[in-house]
Batch of 2 targets.
Target 1
Amino acid sequence: GNSVTQMEGPVTLSEEAFLTINCTYTATGYPSLFWYVQYPGEGLQLLLKATKADDKGSNKGFEATYRKETTSFHLEKGSVQVSDSAVYFCALYNFNKFYFGSGTKLNVKP
Amino acid sequence: EPEVTQTPSHQVTQMGQEVILRCVPISNHLYFYWYRQILGQKVEFLVSFYNNEISEKSEIFDDQFSVERPDGSNFTLKIRSTKLEDSAMYFCASSGEGVWNTGELFFGEGSRLTVL
């Protein structure tokens, strides 16, 4: 079947620290992979995506590379800001259906 | 910028009562979805809707649930007789891509349902 597993939070970092949020997936066929972000009081919004193996999605300083060999799509940012505090959801799209992870809360302290 | 809007933002209801959650998707989108997230758990797919009918639904979406697009703009989720375990955040989403879309889902801010 199709599923997404991401690291549990919360993750607490100081400003300018390096961020990694792990995400692994199980899927049949050739899924697309996404990271969505939910800022406090708002809905989920797309952060970045990758549609095939070895693609790198990037946006707002965040990056994730679609690794088929390790079935992973880890989210990284070199230097986090307080404004990056949010819940991050890894998601998989396959056969016209989205599957979401449980979300990882990131707290960035000044 | 176009956005998906949901009402109410929070609803408290007694067990056994009917609840209707409302969504206004982005106007030129074709695919509509409801997801839910029980506190601390995964975002779960409930149902997708296309061309005025349900295109797919999950095991969660039993006979107690129904969806409608009554007037070409609103997209509603009805729970006929709420249970305690229906307490969750319900997210509406829409997409404008084709059937094999790999495009973006646009989410509303969610409606929190609390069943007492």
Target 2
Amino acid sequence: NAGVIQTPRHKVTGKGQEATLWCEPISGHSAVFWYRQTIVQGLEFLTYFRNQAPIDDSGMPKERFSAQMPNQSHSTLKIQSTQPQDSAVYLCASSLGNTLYFGEGSRLIVV
Amino acid sequence: QQKVQQSPESLIVPEGGMASLNCTSSDRNVDYFWWYRQHSGKSPKMLMSIFSNGEKEEGRFTVHLNKASLHTSLHIRDSQPSDSALYLCAALTSGGNYKPTFGKGTSLVVHP
């Protein structure tokens, strides 16, 4: 079991560019979560899917962030018109029961 | 929206000492708490979970829960340098979406 796989591990993008982050959950897990982690804000919930259906996106900045889960094996988080304040580690997690299993994260730096 | 407060923000203990970390939820409907450990540059890994009042022990780690005060604590005895990490508390409330809320964490340093 490879665990939750996230790509890319690091991404540097210019202000105003688009960034897409990918997540492959653990096979058989029904829920996929996206969190953002910064020193100042800690671990912030963004959105989650259950059985591929979007359940709660209350943490997503509405205008520029979007997430999809087109099939059981991957989810994407897209950030349009990136801003320096989007710089963070984006963590994807999957779960079957109550425990979240996190990927190693995608570190996004917007310059 | 539920908030999860952790204290202290940082903690330094000597090797072999006891580390005590605290976590409180703002939501009376909290059902479940987890403690995750995140080593520097790594992802959070679940350490322990608790949903019943009382105490749960696993090796050197003990978790307490007092649902009336919405408070959980994690105690690490015989602390080791390898325990140095960010400890995150997460809480889940009943009746809503399954959406764990995390605190900002306690940074623990165990010095030899």
